[in-house]
Amino acid sequence: MSSDAVLEELEVLESIYPEELSKISERDIEIDAEPDDPIDGGEELKLTLCVHYTDQYPDTLPNLSLKTVDGEVDDEELEAILEELRSVGNENIGMAMTFTLVSHLREQLSRLVRTRAERRDKEEREKERLALEEEEARTRGTPVTVESFKAWKAAFDREMVLKRTREEEEKLKGLTAKEREEWKRVGLRLSGRQLFERGDKNLEDDTLLEEGTVSVDISQYERTAIEDEDDEEGVAFSDSD
């Protein structure tokens, strides 16, 4: 291709891209490209297409390279974009192709921005789904089985016994020695139900007394019986009576 033909194509490109095109030399240009279909709130992305026209252009592809201006594009993505540009260029061999290459690059950037936005949306929806499932699992609780209930009941009973023991110990700290002895003495005469609530597992259900049943001191009953017998033995009857 003659230099005049290259200059002619450059004149057309300069009229189309007055701000985007930079002429580096007679055979080298750079054109900034952005997505032709930007997404509201999407990331900013801009690349520079570097074109070097060979002596055989347009019968051969120009040398193409890319530079990142705005946004982030990794090397793998850049290489994939270049491969597509070369494929488009091969389809236009024999014709001025720079405008077509830039147009395709803009389409590629639009596709890349949309793909990234869709991926972010998918990740956000997945996070929301996992958070919702976690909240539902937390509020729903663990299904109760016979084994899990027994384990819970045993742990609960132990906790209640320890709690009552700590409460009694705290209460005893504020009592005098005499009051503590009285507290312990009364504690020995707890009703069956109280003993059950305190964790006494040796009592049978049919021996439990209802709350409010008066405790009987057996030792007092025995002393009274002995005294009555002594009184009877001490009574003397006269024959004359």
Automatic annotation (TrEMBL):
<dbReference type="InterPro" id="IPR040213">
    <property type="entry name" value="GIR2-like"/>
</dbReference>
<feature type="domain" description="RWD">
    <location>
        <begin position="8"/>
        <end position="112"/>
    </location>
</feature>
<feature type="region of interest" description="Disordered">
    <location>
        <begin position="116"/>
        <end position="136"/>
    </location>
</feature>
<dbReference type="InterPro" id="IPR032378">
    <property type="entry name" value="ZC3H15/TMA46_C"/>
</dbReference>
<dbReference type="GO" id="GO:0033554">
    <property type="term" value="P:cellular response to stress"/>
</dbReference>
<protein>
    <recommendedName>
        <fullName>RWD domain-containing protein</fullName>
    </recommendedName>
</protein>
<dbReference type="InterPro" id="IPR016135">
    <property type="entry name" value="UBQ-conjugating_enzyme/RWD"/>
</dbReference>
<dbReference type="InterPro" id="IPR006575">
    <property type="entry name" value="RWD_dom"/>
</dbReference>
<dbReference type="GO" id="GO:0010468">
    <property type="term" value="P:regulation of gene expression"/>
</dbReference>
<dbReference type="GO" id="GO:0009893">
    <property type="term" value="P:positive regulation of metabolic process"/>
</dbReference>
<dbReference type="Pfam" id="PF16543">
    <property type="entry name" value="DFRP_C"/>
</dbReference>
<dbReference type="Pfam" id="PF05773">
    <property type="entry name" value="RWD"/>
</dbReference>
<feature type="compositionally biased region" description="Acidic residues">
    <location>
        <begin position="227"/>
        <end position="241"/>
    </location>
</feature>
<feature type="compositionally biased region" description="Basic and acidic residues">
    <location>
        <begin position="116"/>
        <end position="132"/>
    </location>
</feature>
<feature type="region of interest" description="Disordered">
    <location>
        <begin position="219"/>
        <end position="241"/>
    </location>
</feature>
<dbReference type="GO" id="GO:0051246">
    <property type="term" value="P:regulation of protein metabolic process"/>
</dbReference>
